Amino acid sequence: MEKLKAVVLVSVLALVSGVSSVACAGLPLTDALYDGTSLQPMALADVIKNVGPGSVLIVSEQHGNQKHYANQKAALHELQQGGRCTVSVGLEFLSYTDQTAITSYSKGSLAEADFLKAVGWGGNPFADYRDQAQFPGQTGGELLGINAPRALTGTIAKKGISALTPEEQQLMPPNFQLGRAEYRERFEQIMGGHVAADAMERYFAAQSVWDETMAWTSAEFLAAHPSHCLVIVVGDFHAQYGGGLPDRLRARGVQSVTVLSQIEGAGLTESELQDEVGPSKSYGPRADGVWVSVTP
Predict the structure, then answer these.
(1) Any idea what the CATH number is for the domain that residue 255 is in?
(2) How confident is the model over 83-123, as pLDDT tens digits?
């Protein structure tokens, strides 16, 4: 039952939140942006005020959530209007090995249909990301493929890193490391305890390759483009509680990383929402800012 399309569980992972524990009155079930530590309401401008040249702003999502896509666009425009840096965009769904086609599309020399074919776009409709993808080309920035090729992570999830061919090894991020222990613990929690130990090792290795590759390509880009800041659009599990992508970005020398974690509040009680937004006893704050959307 190795049905893992191990591309890698992120669509599933993005729907799951970590275990948190703040026992107070509860938050109102309404669209709002909160400070991830104090739980005080915040303005978007306040969350991103420290994003400047050489910085990364991660804006997560639960895949398929239209309000989350709208919030990503709002964050891009807010950052651009601040004028502190040239805004570039990195999409989790694009591989760094397809950068030539990605740049051609961003610069207007490759038609969208040809671009989507070249990058093997699948999953959510591209319409959900079109504005985010086109934004940097319209404002002087760059659109980046930051992730590992799907075939690479698929092989790792099915067979393990040791099974990679020499050619596949060349696609791995340099100085690769697995995610930290707390991240592994949360990963195992969302897998539900029904995965054999050897399969868990492979799945977590594939997950870690996604994070490490995104961190490596992002750090390399910023080092080569010091006047840019990079907005990364990624599934929420990679971003929350600092254990996935934020941790690996800092390990690779990105000093300023701001995280906006997005939550869907529909179906939660006010106390459950508070638990989702608030810091976890085990893992700390979910993010610098926690953006709640409540879809009717």
Answers:
(1) 3.40.50.11550
(2) 999 999 999 999 999 999 999 999 999 999 999 999 999 88
Q: Which residues contact 144 (CB under 8 A, 6 or more apart)?
A: 88, 89, 90, 91, 94, 96, 99, 102, 217, 218, 221, 230
Is residue 135 over pLDDT 70? yes
Domain count, the chain: 1
The answer to the question of residue 30 being in a domain is: yes
Which residues, at least 6 apart from 142, have a Cβ–Cβ distance to it below 8 Å? 88, 89, 103, 106, 136, 221, 225, 228
